């Protein structure tokens, strides 16, 4: 990474240069392969007060250039705020790259084959079972089952192949539909 530090209307002391360089070095943790980083510090006097402007220009390969401008009355505060904004921009780009993983055509074909194999395996395991509900039952058998189980009702098919419901009434007796 090429680092360029420039001061306009401002002399960059060793401490300022060291702070700027350390700030730029902190951006390496995002692994975005920064080609070059230019830091331009300018000063201007407005209404008798001195204001500092920091501009970070980060060139990234195959992506847009990130430009961050920050104004403040304190030079070090302007550098720190600009650094935070640059980190936020790089974090967004990094997260976008990591989260939006492109899946290749071969990987999709492999997934489709896996799904088909699982479906074929499941077909082999299906065993048709006749439910007890459709077997003809006597009302007395259902009544004894209902008393033993504590259920409120039982649905069954009687010997005449009619669907019937045997239920417990509120008065403790049993009803039959």
UniProtKB/TrEMBL annotation:
Q: Name one GO molecular function term.
A: ribosomal small subunit binding
Q: What is one GO cellular-component annotation here?
A: cytosolic small ribosomal subunit
Against InterPro entries, the record matches this protein to: HPF/YfiA_ribosome-assoc, RHF-like, RHF/RaiA, Ribosom_S30AE_C, Ribosom_S30AE_C_sf
**Keywords, in A-Z order:** Coiled coil, Translation regulation
Keyword Coiled coil carried by entry: yes
- SUPFAM superfamilies per the UniProt record, alphabetical: Ribosome binding protein Y (YfiA homologue)
Stored Pfam families:
Ribosom_S30AE_C (PF16321), Ribosomal_S30AE (PF02482)
Taking every annotated instance into account, which residue ranges of this chain make up the domain Sigma 54 modulation/S30EA ribosomal protein C-terminal? 122-176
Top-level taxon: Bacteria
| Listed GO biological process terms | negative regulation of translational elongation
The answer to whether keyword Coiled coil applies is: yes
| Coiled-coil blocks | 76-125
Q: Its quaternary structure?
A: Associates exclusively with 100S ribosomes, which are dimers of 70S ribosomes.
The record's PANTHER family line, in alphabetical order, gives: 30S RIBOSOMAL PROTEIN (PTHR33231)
* Full protein name: Ribosome hibernation promoting factor
Question: Which species does the entry assign this protein to?
Answer: Sulfurimonas paralvinellae
């Amino acid at each position: 990474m090429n680092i360029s530090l420039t001061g306009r209307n401002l002399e960059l002391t060793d401490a300022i240069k060291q702070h700027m360089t350390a700030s730029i070095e902190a951006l390496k943790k995002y692994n975005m392969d920064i080609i070059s980083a230019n830091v331009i510090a300018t000063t201007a006097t407005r209404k008798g007060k001195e204001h500092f402007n920091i501009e970070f220009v980060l060139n990234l390969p195959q992506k847009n250039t990130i430009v961050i401008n920050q104004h403040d009355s304190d030079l070090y505060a302007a550098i720190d705020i600009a650094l935070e904004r640059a980190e936020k921009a790089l974090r967004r780009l990094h997260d976008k790259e990591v989260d939006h993983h492109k899946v290749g055509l071969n990987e999709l074909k492999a997934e489709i084959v896996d799904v088909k194999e699982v479906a074929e395996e499941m077909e082999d395991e299906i065993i048709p079972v006749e439910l007890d509900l459709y077997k003809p039952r006597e009302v007395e058998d259902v009544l004894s089952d209902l008393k033993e189980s504590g259920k409120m009702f039982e649905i069954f098919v009687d010997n005449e192949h009619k669907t019937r419901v045997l239920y417990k009434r509120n008065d403790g007796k049993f009803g039959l539909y």
